[in-house]
Design goal:
The structure holds two protein chains of two kinds. By secondary structure, chain A is mainly α. In chain A, 78% of the residues lie in helices and 0% in strands. Chain B is 44% helix and 16% strand. In chain B, a hairpin with a 2-residue loop joins strand 15 and strand 16. Classes of the chains: A mainly alpha, B alpha/beta. Chains A and B meet through helix 10 and helix 11 of A and strand 2, helix 7, helix 10, helix 11 and strand 12 of B.
């Protein structure tokens, strides 16, 4: 029954995909009307103006361009023109660095907040104010104080992935069942040991959920941050192709950003499955 | 050197390009060691070289020199020689002309044709000709390029010609002494309007328009305001002028967010190419041979790396001179159009540089001076820009026009380096010019401001 369901679901997915492509193809196929032009003048104009070709590319244009990128993903033609693979590597590198620093800060701090009601009350107003700030709002401030654009981008990733992890860790730690803590107390377990053997395993699923939310946000933000500072990364690639009004490449970037974001999320989902326990 | 080719123990094909080493890696290591040695010994080498030249001049016949040295001994001879010829100073002077303090430089640019000299100097080899290894980096916008140069991520950068003045005075940024030793391009901008305004060619009909310029501190802003004001439109109340980065202008025009813009090329031509807008007028029709963008560096860079700065500026002046010649324009268009630089179709860039272009209304226009290149930063340009900053309330109070102009627009340096690369600089660092028929006298900027009907002073 279950395999039957999977099969039917994948068939349906495929049908939806095919319908989408067909609709896209039909929508971009027709050409608009064009006025007659002097041939000398027409030579100086783009296809949209001369043949009425839709400015929106069709699915086959995109597929051809994807093939072109796949054939040579790691080319390097100077500082401002690198292959899609290299750009992705730069972005993933930045996200990982900022994210890892955020993990190192958020989880210990979250533990402290979760275990001590005093700290929780004292820090709460700060967290509530800092949490809703759009990460990109930090950018000008970061550029001005850090004085280095690539570190600024990493800082922005750090600051935006910090809060969900911090709050989830604190919540997970605070919500550990009272009976378990009481058992630990009766057995006179030392605080550090209590943190690692009782609280950490109990709070792990909540912490992982926070980490999963954070990686999603970090990946969302890196694209915008790189569009702002330029240089390298998938965000810069989108900006550079927008500059050239190349919608084909922008669509490809969107696809790639989506795929990588999904992979990052799935990787953390795997880890989360390892630490869940039946209640 | 040569081995017996008939001896079986000798390997004839050696592993490296010069044949002296067993592998390419070893060959490169040896080369590196050699160049490190060279750098260490450069000073000693220069000393020897200078002394040798002097000795050769004093003793044209080598036998006499040897007899002289034999009688006195080398050290006494050197002492005797330096008593009437300053060997140490001569060595220093000689070394200064040769050694660059910093060879690997980063120069920032915005992908527009104004940056042509800065960009083309990389693919066409003008930087390497002057011994520099320059990486030209594309920046996302004017604020970013400003911050990255202030942060020293870039050693020098392409800026709008009012920006170094604004940065030096601390208008819209922290005050940092900046310099602009070369203008890149003159003319080369245009007013482009959306297709739906095809019939509104008189600016008096433009009330309520949303117009875009690349930056608040730009020639584009001042020229557009000047043009509107001369036509009786108040640029602050009758229309809305917003700063939009050049790459986003065409997208915004297509999305109907703006009615038009005064923008750098290739943005105007790109709007025509995609059938989004038409070119209303070229900026040369407002002020012929107006400056637009410049090559800027902090005063700190100029003072810390004087030789690198000189080499960089000479490379730019050289490239600018090359770009001035119409016969080179097609080659330049092909060199700067790829994704690494402007990222535009070649035909768009070519239409801008050659001046034979489609205007978006079905005509092919020929204007050879649509864009031109002249590196000379006239101080009167700076004074005009300052007068407009004051006219539109960007700066308040008394302005020492002459002093700021002299401090930022390094016309004397440009004169010197233009001579060194074999060009003829203009005789004077100021000139008068007329904008839409109104003459500007650089000695009386305050009277000039007072003469306008629409102003914010």
């Amino acid at each position: 029954m279950s395999s039957n369901l999977t099969l039917r679901a994948s068939v349906l997915s495929f049908v939806i995909f095919a319908l989408f492509i067909a609709a896209w193809h039909i929508a971009t196929r027709q050409t608009g009307s064009v006025a007659a032009m002097d041939p000398e003048y027409a030579k100086l104009m783009g296809l949209t103006a001369t043949t009425g070709k839709s400015a929106m590319p069709g699915p086959f244009d995109v597929a051809a361009k994807i093939w072109e990128h796949l054939k040579n993903p790691f080319y390097d033609r100077g500082p401002n023109d690198k292959g899609l693979g290299i750009q992705l590597a730069f972005s993933i590198g930045r996200v990982m660095l900022g994210y890892c620093i955020a993990v190192c800060v958020a989880i210990p701090t979250g533990f402290v907040i979760g275990m001590s009601p005093l700290m929780s009350k004292a820090l709460n107003p700060f967290i509530q104010v800092m949490k809703p700030i759009s990460p990109l709002a930090w950018m000008p401030l970061a550029l001005y104080t850090i004085k280095d654009s690539s570190i600024s981008a990493i800082f922005v990733i750090f600051i935006c992935s910090l809060w969900p992890m911090l709050i989830n860790t604190a919540f997970g730690v605070a919500a550990v069942r009272k009976e378990w803590l009481n058992v630990a107390r009766t057995l006179e377990v030392r605080p550090l040991r209590k943190a690692f053997t009782v609280i950490l395993p109990a709070a792990a699923p909540t912490i992982l959920t926070g980490m999963r939310i954070s990686i999603g946000i970090a990946w969302l933000v890196i694209v915008a941050a790189e569009m702002l500072v330029g240089g390298t990364g998938i965000g810069y690639f989108v900006w550079n192709e927008w500059n050239n009004l190349s919608i084909v490449n922008v669509i490809i970037s969107i696809l790639v950003i989506g795929l990588v974001g999904m992979l990052l999320d799935q990787a953390l989902a795997r880890v989360a499955r390892l630490v869940t326990y039946p209640d | 050197m040569f081995k017996n080719p008939f001896d079986y123990r000798n390997r004839l094909s050696r592993g490296c390009t010069c044949g002296q080493h067993s592998s390419q890696g070893e060959h490169e290591a040896a080369l590196r060691a050699q160049s490190a040695d060279l750098a260490k010994n450069t000073e000693a080498t220069y000393e020897n070289l200078v002394a040798e030249t002097v000795m050769r001049q004093i003793f044209p016949v080598d036998a006499h020199r040897r007899a002289f040295l034999q009688k006195l001994g080398a050290s006494t001879a050197a002492a005797a020689l330096s008593s009437f010829f300053p060997l140490a100073t001569a060595t220093e002077v000689f070394a200064q002309a040769g050694s660059l303090e910093k060879k690997d430089l980063k120069v920032g640019f915005i992908p527009i044709t104004c940056a042509t000299p800065i960009i083309m100097a990389a693919p066409l080899g003008f930087y390497s000709k002057h011994g520099l290894n320059v990486e030209v980096n594309k920046a996302a916008g004017w604020a970013v390029i400003r911050d990255k140069t202030i942060n020293k991520e870039y050693d020098a950068a392409h800026m709008l010609s009012p920006m170094p003045l604004a940065i030096t005075m601390g208008v819209g940024a922290t005050a940092i002494p900046y310099t602009m030793p070369a203008v890149e391009n003159i003319n080369g901008q245009a007013i482009t309007l959306a297709m739906k305004h095809k019939d509104k060619r008189d600016p008096k009909q433009w009330k309520g328009f949303k117009l875009a310029v690349p930056f608040d501190y730009s020639m584009h802003n001042y020229l557009l305001r000047y043009y509107l004001a001369e036509n009786g439109i108040d640029p602050d109340t009758d229309v809305q002028i917003r700063a939009v980065p050049p790459p986003e202008m065409v997208a915004n025009l297509r999305a109907d967010n703006i009615d038009g813009f005064l923008a750098p090329d290739p943005v105007n031509q790109r709007a025509v190419y995609d059938g989004v807008g038409f070119i209303h007028m070229l900026s040369k029709q407002i002020w012929d041979r107006h400056p637009c963008c410049g090559f800027a560096a902090s005063q700190e860079f100029v003072k810390t790396y004087p030789n690198s700065y000189a080499a960089l500026l000479k490379a730019i002046i050289d490239a600018t001179a090359y770009a001035t010649k119409p016969e080179n324009r097609k080659e330049i268009a092909e060199a700067i159009a790829p994704a690494n630089y402007l990222n535009q179709p070649v035909t768009v860039v070519e239409q801008v540089l050659t001046g034979t272009f489609a205007d978006g209304l079905g005509n092919v226009v020929k204007a050879a001076d649509r864009i031109d290149f002249d590196p000379f930063p006239y101080e009167s340009f700076a004074i005009w820009i300052l007068s407009q900053m004051k006219r539109w309330g960007q700066i308040k109070g008394d302005v020492d026009y002459q002093k700021i102009a002299k401090q930022v627009y390094l016309a004397t340096d440009t004169t010197k380096f233009m001579k060194e690369v074999g060009l003829t600089p203009p005789a004077s660092t100021t000139k008068t010019f007329s904008i839409m028929g109104k003459t500007f006298d650089p000695t009386k900027p305050d009277d000039y401001i007072a003469s306008f009907a629409i102003k914010r002073t």
